[in-house]
Amino acid sequence: MNVLTLLLLGPLVSAVLIFLIIFLFSKVHQSVYTFLALLGPGVSAFLALFVSYYSYFEKEVFSSHLFTWLHIGDFVVEAALKADALSAFMILFVAPVSFLIHIYATGYMDGQRSYGRFFAYFNIFVFFMLLLVLADNPIIMFIGWEGVGLTSYALIGFYYEEIKNTYAGNKAFILNRIGDFGFLSALMLLFLEIGSGGFDFEHIFYNLVQIDSGMLSLIAFLLFVGAMGKSAQIPLFVWLPDAMAGPTPVSALIHAATMVTAGVYMVARFAPLYNLTPDISIFIAYVGALSALFAAVVATREYDIKKILAYSTMSQLGFMFMALGVGAYSTALFHMFAHAFFKALLFMAAGAIIAAFHHKQDIRELRGIQAPVLFVMMYIATLTITAIPPFSAFFSKDAIMSALYASGHVEIFFLAFVASLLTAFYMFRMVFVLFFTREKKSAQKSGASMIYPMAVLTLLSIFAGLLNFPEIFAGELNISHWLGLAEQSHKVPHATEIILMGVNTLFIAGVIFYTYKKYAYTDAIEKENETSVIANKFYVDAFYHQTVVRTLQAFSLFFDKTISKSLIDDSINAMAFAYYKIGKIFAHAENGNVRFYALYILVGVVSGFIYLYFLLGDVV
């Protein structure tokens, strides 16, 4: 069997085996589920490293043909996998990080109800993400795209006993369907414009020059609508904070390396299209900038530890879209690479804290934690996300800031700069409130299955920047040479880059110092106004509820009462009543009496003869 097929099917096979055991056996020891849960993702992680190694060092492209999906005339869609440089780069962190989160989840979910069902969903989720990344054409990619949406619905609403969790799953599912409508519409337009031959990415990109510029812009915009939904950008972001209703490993998996990064990957995959539509690209950059700033502002008045991290994800994704919008694709992907490690670490550390304190999530209730190991890991992850040197995000975010500055879009650079400062504020606000207090609370120690994956991610958060070390530091590794994307060159002189690095770091350090003085060993967080506009997320959810949800509800009621009942139901009932009355009339004729039937035949025959007589008489 082909290496890509094995890589893809590993998690799916594990999920199927878990489901079979659940259906066939009433009681099974938890260790059986644990073994199966880790087997598939473990194989995929190992093979992903193998494929990425040969892709980077040997420039090898892996492919696998599964079967023909559709063959109508000239039009062919193959169910095929392909690990070119971009896909190989994606699986380099998607599969290993997913495996580490699986190991962590075995400790976090230990002893909980539906342990097997959870890992079946978890493995199916990873399978669909790998399918999305490895797909050789957008049709198969869309199947993976929808698959992660479906399984995220099941995982977010996993604790379905509480209705709010079910609502959160519904919200994520519905908001993503809005974005997916844009993605699917773009694929339909591509089909209409290309119309024959294959529908793989290579064939599509080759034929883009034949499509009218206006149509290209529409397709590019609709594709980005899909990315808005999946990657939680303005205006389709409101599902992301509520998605924290699921178990913390779900949050780590969705936010770090899988679902929300799919939109960034999709835009990068369609780089040839966006290079031909500069207006849409700049629109993407503006949306990313506004999303990054909005999420950062909201996070400054958030108190739920997981929702703080959720808004940080939205903000960091905004940085990636800013880079994509100015054509710095490899820079955006490098930040996504670094983000996978430190964001998984942040969520896993938060999950360990939540588990140790009986699932409390309000940082005001978690103050004074005594957990040195968790503190070190969360502190390193926080230093990383705030772009403090020499941690990995310092290099990835510096590359984004340099690209924005070099692009000439000063307003986007300024919004990114402010969002970066706010990142330092709300992240260290969380850390100082949790750990820098006079009151002390002893935390239950986390198990080895939770600590070891976090230790690996801590090291990766520190050293992942080496994959794309800046030239000014004599860096020789550069992922742009590996990925080979046709991107715009946004380079600034080394002196300017050093100044930007220095200014960013200096201002961030100043913000951290200010945050320390305000929140460390003080009660400042208790005095914050929870009724402010920021604390209420600028009332965006309320606005959507009043304008969209209630409008749809009113329309549904109108349709139900006026259209469905008054028009459709009443019309059908009237027709049924008319048929009933007509039937009653004919029932008198159909009485079973042979003499009456003979009379009807006689009357019919005579009537026929009379009609023919007069007809023939007229002819004569």
Give a quick summary of the entry:
This protein is mainly α and 620 residues long. It is built from 23 helices and 4 strands.
Write up what this structure looks like:
- The protein is mainly alpha-helical and 620 residues long.
- Among the domains are: 331-535, no CATH class; 544-619, no CATH class.
- It contains 23 helices and 4 strands.
- It has helices at residues 3-24, 30-58, 85-108, 115-134, 138-156, 163-194, 201-206, 213-230, 239-242, 248-256, 262-269, 271-275, 278-299, 305-325, 329-356, 372-385, 392-407, 410-435, 448-463, 479-483, 494-519, 540-589, 594-619, and strands at residues 62-72, 75-83, 369-370, 441-442.
- A two-stranded antiparallel ribbon has the order 1-2.
- A hairpin with a 2-residue loop joins β1 and β2 (75-83).
- α14 runs antiparallel to α15 (329-356), α14 packs antiparallel against α18 and α15 (329-356) packs antiparallel against α16.
- The termini are far apart.
- The model has no long low-confidence stretch (mean pLDDT 90).
Q: What is the terminal-to-terminal distance? A: 86 Å
What is the element string, with H for helices and E for strands?
Answer: HHEEHHHHHHHHHHHHHEHHHEHHHHH
Query: What is the general shape?
Result: globular
Could you tell me the number of beta strands?
4
Proportion of residues in extended strands: under 5%
- Which strand order spans the largest sheet, edge to edge or round the barrel? 1-2
Low-confidence stretches: none
Major sheet description: 2 strands, antiparallel
Rounded mean pLDDT score: 90
Helical stretch tally = 23
Question: What is the radius of gyration?
Answer: 30 Å
Measured as a percent range, the helix fraction is over 70%
Structural class: mainly alpha
